Amino acid sequence: GRTLQNTMINLGLQNACDEAVYQLGLDMEELEEIEEDAGLGNGGLGRLAACFLDSMATLGLAAYGYGIRYEYGIFNQKIRDGWQVEEADDWLRHGNPWEKARPEYMLPVHFYGRVEHSASGAKWIDTQVVLALPYDTPVPGYMNNTVNTMRLWSARAPNDFNLRDFNVGDYIQAVLDRNLAENISRVLYPNDNFFEGKELRLKQEYFVVAATLQDIIRRFKASKFGSTDSVRTVFDSFPDQVAIQLNDTHPAMAIPELMRIFVDIEKLPWDKAWDITKKTFAYTNHTVLPEALERWPVDLVEKLLPRHLQIIYEINQRHLDHIASLFPNDVDRLRRMSLIEEGGTKRINMAHLCIVGSHAVNGVAKIHSEIVKTQVFEDFAALEPEKFQNKTNGITPRRWLLLCNPGLAELIAEKIGEDYVRDLSQLTKLHEFVDDDLFIREVAKVKQENKVKFALYLEKEYKVKINPSSMFDVHVKRIHEYKRQLMNCLHIITMYNRIRRDPAKLFVPRTVIIGGKAAPGYHMAKMIIKLINAVAQVVNNDPMVGSKLKVIFLENYRVSLAEKVIPATDLSEQISTAGTEASGTGNMKFMLNGALTIGTMDGANVEMAEEAGEENLFIFGMRVEDVTELDRRGYHAHLYYDRLPELKQAVDQIRSGFFSPKDPNLFNDVVNMLFHHDRFKVFADYEAYVKCQEKVSELYLNSKAWTKKVIRNIAAAGKFSSDRTIKEYARDIWHVEPSDLKIPPPNEPRDAGQDKTPNGTAA
Description:
This protein is α/β, with parallel strands linked by helices. The chain contains 31 helices and 25 strands. Strands 21-20-19-22-23-24 form a 6-stranded parallel β-sheet, with helices on both faces. Strand 2 and strand 3 form a beta hairpin. The longest helix has 26 residues, at 437-462. It starts with a helix and ends with a strand.
């Protein structure tokens, strides 16, 4: 997202800056719109990391966020004739005032080459070198005078690149070829929940890992803990001083890399090195979709990182020897638990590597952690149940309430004081006001103001007239079959058909807003976008419908757009097939901002219902057990199609070209998928979804009853602060104590006697 407003809020300077800028004849909101989003992630995973950095700084943890400084982030999405078109995100075009290059900390990263074994150990030689140049961005805590660092690495070719080798003649070509090395940090791979086993992607993963570990070890050696016996550093205290959290398997190569440093360079014995490594790393799993799990071909790793492959083989050998000693003759268990998958091309299962090489493994919501333990990694959990934990995701209330919804934030502060911003559990105090008529009206008024503001934005950007008193029904997230934007689309068509069948009948007006990016290579996701736009074209131009139903596809959904749409939302769509969305975090943002949720019992929705009371969410559809049972019986889409006339009508309209008259067969692939290979069972939940939506409309007619539910939701949102999440990581995994001490500002003398830095570093 953007940095300016977040920095002003966390420093307590927003009002002063607004006023100063106003006196210069400028408008702060206009200025804020000029800043580009830093789009350095794909969706939930990257935004979660940003929330975590905000919380770690706010909790006074000595923590660093490490990543890659992509020159081009997630693509900008344009919609042309209803189709997604990608444009490069040249976010650094005008420079980035928040970053500071740190050439003095530049580090070498090695690729390719070969391994030489001798009496003194293994040597990785004849490698190609790429330099990692760090850029530091400050991460301010909320009103506590703490500023942490996010360090992003950029790839640079060494000056002798391609010039030291027998490259006598072509000096010009050698300099041009520097681009090859520097391409490593050029562009973010745009897949969300999908693994693409490309060499450049593996290079990116090793690049960030190798640079970061060198940086961490340099810092450890410079500290009082990295004491040296004669020449050699003693690493015994390393896990007490350093904790490294692996955000999914993307940085899994850190495990063999740290082993390589300890064994080959620092000359530690294997067992000692492995003990330290395991105590240092912890792994967070973020998805159970098989197509998202990283499985790198052995021959690619052998070419790019030959020493790391040897180390992974050694880790695997010792791991399997251990399993075999516990379960003699159980060859199938050995096959299931191996880090190496045989059959076809040999691959390395990076999740297995992370589990074996970490002292803690966690999922990101209760239901997901349960699935991780009992299904995806059941063999590992049976072996070491104490290793598996849950850490339910959270969001930072600074960006996702104070920054994006100042009206609501202020209204809450009037009732319960301002402390809730640092301790979101205090929102439970709002339960006292659930029957307070004035408060109910004020909450509804803030929502209405947000809706009017967003409606004006939509009318400016999309040239459609929006009815601000209609229900704003919002479905924004990455476009993916498991997230079931198609089911929402079928509901839109069903509402459309009902209006046309009986135009006189009372219909609760809706503005349905769908937004999100599809991975450029994901054909079905792109067809879904086209279908939504085709349906919108018909619905929005039908005079029989008028202002009762409007459909908008939000172009280029990103953090800065989320900050506009979420506060204006009435109904939040969280409708993934049960057991597929690990947690979700958008769901929490909507809850905190006064929207009601329609959703399945999936991810964090389960805990949201637990906190607010299931009767205060619109929960529908199959539970995980029902999905499992349906899989056992076999899912037959045509049975639902034959039994449900409204579903049949909607599907027939898509199939016949009602929404694509110029190309009646345009959506054949979509219809064919829904009937013959829909892994996510859209038809199975359609009926329950439509019935649940009728309940939503019914409640929306009673503004007071609706707003009471809204207040109960806000009052129950406290658990979903990333501050709570980070406190749990700190205590259960990193073994550091959060501190709510406000350190003195730089202009006050610091009491030298009081060292207020918490012992231990979370890296």
